[in-house]
Amino acid sequence: MSSTNPSARKIFVLNGHPGETSLSRSIAETYANAAQSAGHEVRLTHLRDLPFDPDHGFAGYVQHKPLEPCLVSFRKDVDWADHIVMTAPMWWGGLPAKLKGLIDRTFLPGWAFDSRQRTKIGMPLPLLTGKTARVFVNSDTPDVFFGLLYRKALLRQIKGQIFEFSGIKPARITHFAPAGHADAQKVALWLTKVRGLAQKGI
């Protein structure tokens, strides 16, 4: 798809909530629509629509299960994209099991990183370089308590131990909270922020 926007990007949006309806889905669709309207090329996938076994099933990476067709397509979308956008709720301090399973099954050696080669600081060589990311996380825990009590552990995991570990950087995080019973006015403000970021492709 051609674009008149000279700064247009190829953006892959993943709604990482396993439910049919959710705030995460609203954020993903809002971002995708606004980015496309601004001239970016966009692909949108909903985790709920991906039929795969989320269990890696082995100790280490010597063995792994053949990837289901939807996981092959997911990898192709990541390879295609300049910018990865993921939306997700925080459940019990972590990611939903199916979303974590998607990462476990696809972010494997030879695609996301190479453990046989090392960086100057001794880390496995990242392979998904040249891409950036934006992750929208919503939680019931207010941001101040999330920082003081839990040191924003989930955000650091997503940013540093998943995306930037694989070479996708910078990986920026936007945290919306408390989200469990957010009123319509607050959600509207959050979605306005999402549109602004989407228009810029960041």
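The above is record 1. Record 2 follows with the same two-line structure.
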Amino acid sequence: MPAPPAHTPRKAALAFIFLVVLIDVLAFGLIIPVLPHLVEEFTGSAAGAALWIGIFGTVFATIQFASAPIQGALADRYGRRPVILLSCLGLGLDFIIMALAPTLWWLLLARVFSGVFSASFSTANAYVADITPPEQRAKRYGLIGATFGVGFIIGPVIGGWLGGIDLRLPFWFAAGLALLNFCYGLFVLPESLPPEKRARRFDWTSARPHASLLFLRRYPAIWGLAAVVFIANLAHYVYPSVFVLFADVRYGWGPREASWVLALVGVCSVIVNVLVIGRVVKAVGERRALLLGLSCGVVGFVVYAFASEGWIFLLGLPISALWALAAPATQALITRQVDVDMQGRVQGALMSLVSVAGIIAPISFASVFGLFISDRAPVAFPGAPWMLAAVLLALAVLIAWRHARPAPVAEVAAQP
């Protein structure tokens, strides 16, 4: 079926892309509370499950690292819409494989599929850049963040409830949502990049993973920001790598309890993205918003690391939620430095950085967690992965302080 007209009003197009992102996040959120426990059924121990979750994350990120630049180049050459549709279809098939998996190796195969097709988030960022004036991008990326938050409010709660019935039921539900997303995009989602603004040809040389990273050399003004993206995502991987197993070991929380905590994380994220980001960026500018967000992330992770009781851990959630200030501010600062026909490739290159972080982080956090809950631990400290994440974010603060350039005063004043 041909794409809907490209001249669809911008507000409608933005609503379309928000719904695409929402359903994708909802599908991922469904499996978060149950995947570690499914792996634990196969391995027989929390430490063994932590190691395999780390392996899954590393495999996923390695495949994504190879795929993301190709997807970014395809989006610049052929448009955003077909890449988003292919992603939704592929993720639907991935969740079906996970639902049927009889062994850990089937789950590993599913991670390979997921790494290949998980392009919709980076392409969505390019889509938003296509239809949004530069001075409004931080606010729009904040709304994308809010969409993530809504997905993580609803998804884990449904996943935890369904997982209480059967650990595989959330995977079937997630598959249905992803395939519904594909059908929605097929009939409704308009193209955001008109033919005259697309790259003239698809360049396989530039689509190679290392070439995608080298591509960032064309934009030295964003090198420091790219480093912040890398380190921040490195730290963020602590959540999918250890949270569910950490909550079980430290506080005795099962899938349902963990899902309610994840839902609370989503509520805090929505509040920050909808009510806080636009006001803070308007008041202090993108650079200061970035620094404030990263600093709150450091404090939140330190609280998590040393929280001896579940209620203390919960006190860290609203502090850590302010970390959400950083991502849209970083994206807005980066997009100011990039030509319109290069947005997809830059986003693909940044996604490659995220993938490199994903290659390193899951096995690192899982290994640290496994070590500090094992008999070999120098000291029993289940919060060690959170402390490592806090140190990483502190490094990101220093880099952002040095390299993030504020927007021109006239542009900041013009933001709604």
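The domain at 10-190+219-408 is CATH 1.20.1250.20 (Growth Hormone; Chain: A;).
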